[in-house]
Design a protein that fits this description.
The protein has 5 helices and 2 strands; from the N terminus they run ααββααα. Helix content is 54%, strand content 6%. It has a two-stranded antiparallel sheet with strand order 1-2. It is mostly helical. It is globular and about 30 Å long. The relative contact order is 0.19. The chain has one domain. The structure holds FE2/S2 (inorganic) cluster. FE2/S2 (inorganic) cluster (FES) binds next to loops. The site of FE2/S2 (inorganic) cluster has 11 residues, from loops.
């Protein structure tokens, strides 16, 4: 089930964001983009929740915007242009 829902979530992402899934989105804590997407798939709907589950953004916070963007895109709440 988890795999299916992750696949569905990935379908929502623009191609550019589906690349490099195995690479670290959070380089400070070595958290892969896929790990973050998985956390969102499992219900993390805020940066705080992603942080708790994956430790992403807990370094210098440099990936916070990218995590926010992934949450927005996956949850379909994008409000910025
Ligand atoms: S890259 Fe995630 S906190 Fe720096």
């Amino acid at each position: 089930m988890a795999i299916d829902s992750v696949t569905q979530l990935l379908d929502k992402l623009p191609a550019v964001l589906k690349r490099d899934l195995e690479k670290n989105l959070c380089v400070c804590n070595e958290v892969s983009k896929m790990a973050i997407i998985n956390a969102i798939a499992q219900g993390a709907s805020t940066v705080e929740e992603v942080k708790k589950q994956t430790y992403a953004t807990m370094g210098a916070g440099c990936c916070t915007q990218q995590v926010e963007r992934l949450i927005e895109l996956i949850n379909g709440q994008s409000q910025d242009g």
